[in-house]
Design a protein that fits this description.
Protein-Tyrosine Phosphatase, Chain A; 486 residues; eleven-stranded mixed beta sheet
């Protein structure tokens, strides 16, 4: 239980009706979850506005309400607090309700279009190898030390985030590494969280349906760094042209990183093969099981974070050689006849370009590259032709197919993708709506030594079609496609 007055610090109050000396036993943003002596926070959403449910929340026993617009009628026994931003207030209230767990740990956020999941996963692995109790919040899963919890969003909502951070603090975690999506930053899900540092991986075409345009997307990411305290660090990938934009207004200590250009911290690729990387890093050579230039950048980010957090250099580098890629990130699948089969989460043009560049780099001769790729429904339409063009430019054969079509007609999505293909590209492309059939076709086309890449879904174990999540795992489908027939 908390007093409302103790929860309202940093809430940017505009007006209060009633007493703030009232007990709060739980906090809710869903009126259906309100209980007696509860606090209901009315948050405006893109589909549902919490202000429309204030009455229902009060009927369910809410003793107090936080909102941006004062309701016309409220019972005298209910306290109403008007704030500038309900979403931001929710983060601060949730943090206070859970006794500010982020103040008890070193919390580091990783943001960027690509590389968030891999970087966070590698950091969690590294700090477990360094014998630290550590938490992880990511797209694939959440972890409290070694206990795995399912993840429903890249970054949880503010209430869930603070509850998870409290669990981590209570479990003795000293560090937490979390993905910070652009949606989460704009929606204030991280408000109330004290960050010890933040990492910028890169920014490319994605989520423009939500942010409006590329500048809006950049500004969304930038907010994370704008809000960092002076005690924090901001590690940015200087190989990305927007790195300076990210930290232009930050109070944090800026550390630049680069694999290609000039920076405070640099890594140089010595070898890049299908079996792994060799990097020259801070005067030492590091062997890694990870593959590709994009993973060189991810590994550099991991090392820089460990350095900024005070880890011993040689111990960190030694343990980094044991790190494994997360599920569905350039993950090799058993195949036949010396064929290399790879599943990767690449679902943006830049990510697909990077994976195909890595494949091109590790090719040893005349192998064909056969790529299976699609685009999600109800999402950024503009990237569809770009994705098809990227696939065609880096592949010998391309099969366009479904990738979570959601409420859209998958054939229409494929037609959008085909718009990005010139006549030459079209001759090497097939469009197959059924993803299972597309994967099996790619396997059937592959000759000994060829490379088959199935991109877009990675770790996901479902296809989302017309509101249903149907079990579907690219890794299992690809493995089965190459299984010998009996």
């Amino acid at each position: 239980m908390k007093l409302l007055s103790d929860l309202l610090y940093d809430a940017r109050i505009l007006e209060v009706r009633g007493t703030t000396h009232v007990a709060v036993e739980h906090v809710a943003v869903d009126s259906r979850k309100v209980q007696p002596l509860g606090l209901f926070v009315a948050v405006p959403g893109t589909i549902v506005d919490g202000h429309d449910y204030i009455g229902k929340a009060i009927e369910s026993g809410a003793a107090c309400v936080i909102c941006e617009r004062m309701p016309e009628e409220v019972p005298e026994h209910v306290t109403v607090v008007q704030v500038k931003s309900s979403a931001a207030a929710l983060g601060h209230v949730a943090a206070a309700f859970h006794n500010h767990p982020s103040r008890e740990m070193k919390v580091v956020a990783v943001t960027g279009t690509n590389g968030k999941t891999t970087t966070v996963s590698l950091l969690h692995q590294l700090y477990r190898l360094l014998d630290r109790k550590v938490g992880m919040l990511g797209t694939v899963e959440n972890r409290i030390v070694d206990h795995v919890l399912p993840a429903t969003h890249t970054t949880p909502d503010a209430l869930s985030l603070q509850a998870l951070l409290r669990e981590m603090a209570d479990a003795g975690c000293t560090h937490v590494f979390m993905e910070a999506s652009s949606h989460a930053i704009v929606q204030e899900r991280t408000a109330g969280t004290l960050f010890a540092g933040a990492v910028f991986t890169n920014i490319t075409h994605d989520h423009l349906d939500y942010h409006g345009d590329f500048n809006g997307y950049i500004k969304a990411k930038k907010q994370l760094f704008d809000r960092l305290p002076a005690s924090a660090f901001a590690a940015v990938n200087a190989d990305d042209p927007h790195a300076e934009d990210m930290v232009a207004d930050t109070k944090a200590k800026v550390v630049t990183m680069a694999v290609q250009g000039v920076a405070d911290e640099r890594a140089r690729m010595v070898e890049n093969q299908i079996t792994g990387l060799v990097l020259h890093l801070d005067g030492q050579e590091l062997y890694s099981q990870l593959v590709g230039g994009f993973n060189a950048s991810n590994l550099l980010a991991v090392y820089v974070v460990s350095k900024m957090l005070g880890a011993d250099k040689m111990n960190a580098l030694t343990q980094m050689s044991l790190l494994k890629p997360p599920a569905g990130r350039f993950e090799r699948v058993p195949a036949r006849d010396g064929i290399t089969a790879i599943v990767d989460y690449a679902h943006t043009p830049d990510a697909l370009d990077n994976v195909l560049k890595t494949v091109a780099h590790v090719r040893t001769g005349g192998e064909n590259v056969i790529t299976v790729v699609g685009c999600g429904g109800d999402r950024d339409v503009a990237k569809r032709p770009v994705m098809a063009r990227s696939a065609a430019s880096g592949s010998d054969r391309v099969i366009l197919t479904s990738d979570n079509p959601r409420s859209e007609d998958p054939a229409a999505i494929l037609r959008d993708m085909e718009q990005g293909l010139d006549p030459i590209d079209k001759r090497k492309c097939l469009s197959i709506v059924d993803r299972r059939e597309a994967i099996r076709t790619a396997a059937a086309l592959a000759e000994p030594g060829d490379i088959v890449l199935v991109a877009g879904k990675g770790h996901e174990t479902y296809q989302e079609i017309r509101g249903e999540r149907i079990p579907f795992d690219d890794r299992l489908e690809l493995k089965e496609a190459f299984a010998p027939t009996t």
